[in-house]
């Protein structure tokens, strides 16, 4: 596997990684190269901009959620057919899970054997940039820091000072971007506004970024640097093979293990290790749903079952591999937009509601009474309904006082508190998604809370608490999982949809 590649990193968040990485992708694509965009860590938002810049599906590379041994295969699969790959880092170059470097940008760069380009916000410094870059270059000899792109440079004289300082430590400057306040994506409570909510404006900004990067960055040097990456010995990942190789018996936690299993609140990095990878509930069980209960939207009667996956502006958080695994497991996957569609796709046998921003679109989601009723009917029939974060809010009785689907006896509301971090979780009981005791690693990222009404079986336990809801075929939780780390999840959902 020999894909030219480089990693775009920074000393810390806020230096302009997303701007530079997306601009590089768009500029290289404008040159006629097939560009593959990737994001280190669990972030769903940046990959949406990558997809617009490259015209290819967005891909995440997260050693915590998928396992370190999966990074090179997932990269190879996502970058298949590309002439060059650009991997955007997360936070600072060496920031990982908690106090470790595991899952950091540096960790992923090492797993991919990729050179690193450091983006530095130079707006408030001159010669000191050399001390900063020198420290990053020498901190870990295993990281090949091969060049710098200067961001928010004030003037020609400012650029000259910065270039001279970096020449003194032998670090190439691949480009220098001037300050431009007119190229900026709007932000809100969880970061950038997703590209899917503002596609026209986002495309315009990306085109301007491509022009700016083409003018300001030595693209020939960038391409040469990417081509210096050595071949990777790993074979590309494949969803069908992953399903075939996923264990029939999941990793089940003992009572002693449950006591040891801890959450890691506010781990802002992406940490590594396998952590019992393969614990994805890979058996062929049909979960805990009851019979059909007169289900009219059930499986497709001996053919491929229809699995609806929420999309559109309100539900933008879904890893690409989730859909690919569902398809490989035998489903016909159809997108449903809860903002626009008034009914689930014909023959829907299962529904997957990923993450997004229902709190921003609560009024329009609530106004779509026909779809809310259809979702409630599907859940009431015992069909599998798997919801993560935004999906959990949509299934609640209400969100910020507005009626939602009413599948769960719970009320959701916005809060000022950010909940963020990786979670070592254990399935609290058997469900359509996992057998009881299955150990997983997931991620939380929200500013909402859900207050349950009548007691309901929880989905997970982590950090000494119970979280989420399980009822018949419904599995709803704040926890995001990357199904490439647990391929058996897709197999269970599709098997239940076909029943």
Instruction: Report the helical percentage.
Output: 25-40%
Give me the number of helical elements. 16
Shape: elongated
Q: Order of strands in the sheet with the most strands?
A: 3-2-4-1-5-6-7
For the termini, the CA-CA separation is 40 Å
Proportion of residues in β-strands: 15-25%
Rg from alpha-carbon coordinates: 23 Å
Number of strands: 21
Structural class: alpha/beta
Quote the average pLDDT: 87
In short:
30% of the residues lie in helices and 23% in strands. The chain has 499 residues and is of the alpha/beta class.
Sum up the structure in keywords.
single chain; 499 residues; alpha/beta; 7-stranded parallel beta sheet; 6-stranded mixed beta sheet; 16 helices; elongated
Layout: helices, strands, pairs:
Blueprint lengths: L4 E5 L7 H14 L4 E6 L4 H10 L4 E3 L1 H4 L4 H8 L5 E5 L16 H8 L3 E6 L6 H12 L5 E9 L2 H12 L5 E6 L8 E2 L2 E2 L6 H18 L2 H9 L11 H7 L9 H6 L45 E5 L9 H9 L3 E5 L11 E6 L8 H6 L1 H12 L4 E4 L1 H6 L2 E2 L2 E2 L6 E18 L11 E14 L7 E3 L2 E3 L1 E3 L2 E4 L10 H11 L1
Helix pairs in contact: 1-2, 1-8, 10-12
Report what the structure shows.
It is a single chain. This protein is of the alpha/beta class and 499 residues long. The chain has 16 helices and 21 strands. It has helices spanning 17-30, 45-54, 63-66, 71-78, 105-112, 128-139, 156-167, 199-216, 219-227, 239-245, 255-260, 320-328, 362-367, 369-380, 390-395, 488-498; strands spanning 5-9, 35-40, 59-61, 84-88, 116-121, 145-153, 173-178, 187-188, 191-192, 306-310, 332-336, 348-353, 385-388, 398-399, 402-403, 410-427, 439-452, 460-462, 465-467, 469-471, 474-477. Strands 3-2-4-1-5-6-7 form a seven-stranded parallel β-sheet, sandwiched between helices. It has a six-stranded mixed β-sheet with strand order 11-10-12-13-21-20, sandwiched between helices. Strands 14, 15, 16, 17, 18 and 19 form a six-stranded mixed β-sheet that branches. α1 packs parallel to α2, α1 packs across α8 (199-216) and α10 (239-245) crosses α12 (320-328). It is elongated. It starts with a strand and ends with a helix. The model is unreliable at 249-301 (pLDDT under 50).
């Amino acid at each position: 596997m020999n894909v030219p590649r480089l990693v775009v990193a920074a000393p810390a968040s806020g230096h302009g990684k997303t701007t530079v990485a997306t601009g590089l992708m768009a500029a290289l694509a404008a040159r006629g190269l097939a560009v593959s965009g990737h994001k280190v860590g669990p972030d769903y938002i940046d990959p949406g901009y990558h997809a617009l810049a490259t015209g290819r599906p967005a891909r995440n590379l997260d050693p915590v959620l998928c396992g370190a041994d999966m990074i090179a295969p997932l990269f190879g699969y996502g970058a298949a057919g590309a002439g060059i790959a650009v991997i955007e880092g997360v936070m600072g170059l060496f920031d990982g899970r908690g106090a470790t470097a595991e899952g950091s940008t540096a960790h992923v760069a090492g797993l991919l054997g990729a050179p690193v380009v450091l983006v530095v916000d130079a707006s408030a410094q001159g010669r000191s940039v050399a001390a900063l870059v020198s420290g990053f270059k020498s901190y870990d000899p295993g990281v090949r820091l091969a060049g710098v792109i200067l961001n928010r440079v004030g003037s020609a004289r400012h650029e000259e000072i910065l270039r001279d300082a970096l020449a003194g430590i032998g670090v190439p400057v691949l480009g220098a971007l001037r300050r431009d306040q007119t190229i900026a994506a709007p932000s809100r409570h969880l970061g950038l506004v997703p590209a899917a909510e503002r596609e026209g404006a986002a495309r315009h900004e990306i085109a301007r970024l491509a022009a700016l990067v083409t003018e300001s960055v030595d693209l020939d040097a960038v391409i040469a640097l990417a081509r210096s990456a050595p071949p990777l010995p790993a074979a590309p990942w494949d969803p069908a093979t992953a399903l075939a190789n996923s264990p029939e018996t999941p990793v089940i936690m003992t009572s002693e293990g449950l006591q040891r299993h801890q959450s890691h609140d506010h781990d802002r990095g992406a940490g590594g290790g396998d952590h019992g990878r393969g614990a994805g509930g890979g058996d062929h069980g049909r979960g805990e749903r009851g019979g059909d209960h007169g289900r009219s939207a059930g499986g497709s009667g001996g053919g491929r079952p229809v699995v609806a996956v929420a999309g559109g502006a309100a539900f933008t958080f879904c890893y690409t591999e989730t859909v690919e695994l569902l398809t490989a497991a035998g489903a016909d996957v159809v997108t449903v937009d809860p903002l626009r569609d008034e009914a689930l796709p014909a023959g829907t046998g299962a529904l997957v509601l990923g993450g997004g921003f229902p709190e921003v679109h609560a009024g329009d989601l609530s106004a779509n009474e026909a779809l809310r009723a259809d979702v409630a009917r599907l859940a009431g029939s015992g069909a599998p309904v798997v919801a993560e974060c935004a999906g959990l809010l949509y299934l609640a009785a209400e969100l910020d006082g507005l009626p939602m689907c009413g599948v769960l006896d719970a009320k959701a509301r916005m809060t000022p508190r950010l909940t963020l971090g990786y979670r070592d979780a254990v399935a609290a009981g058997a469900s359509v998604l996992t057998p009881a005791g299955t150990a997983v690693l997931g991620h939380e990222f929200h500013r909402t809370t859900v207050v349950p009404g009548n007691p309901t079986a929880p989905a997970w336990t982590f950090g000494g608490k119970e979280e989420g809801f399980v009822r018949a075929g419904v599995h709803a939780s704040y926890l995001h999982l990357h199904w490439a780390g647990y391929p058996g999840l897709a197999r269970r959902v599709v098997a239940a949809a076909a029943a």
